[in-house]
Structures are given as C-alpha cells and as structure tokens.
Amino acid sequence: PLDPAYPADRIAHFITDSAASVILTDSGHRDQLPGTLSADILCLDALPEVPAAAETAATAPGPQDLAYLIY
Question: Which SUPFAM superfamilies match (predicted)?
Fold first, then answer.
C-alpha cells in the first residue's frame, strides 16, 4: 500500500521502480496518482459487484494471481 499523504514524486517513484502493471485504488484517490503512469489503474469502488463463491478451493498461486508488494 502507498500512503496517499506521500508526496506525488515519491508515489511515482514507488510505482515506476516496482514496474507495477496494475494499480488498485479508489475514486477518491485516483486524481492523486501521477498522470504519466503506464500501469492500468482500477478503481475498486467503480468495479461491478461479483457474488462470492459458496466455497473457495485451496490452490497454489500462479502467474495469473495478484501479488501484494510491500516496500
């Protein structure tokens, strides 16, 4: 996670340095992201609701799965 209180240049450095291809945020913080990013930006509060599966099978993570990066 990136603290929205960080300066814009620091946020841009973290995103660029991590080579993130997707950024998850919300509509309230979208405008705080630098406009020069090449990553796809998804606003979680703008995505359609998807019903949860009744049961989730335990599987090993793969390259198609999300990763959580902590600096």
Answer: Acetyl-CoA synthetase-like
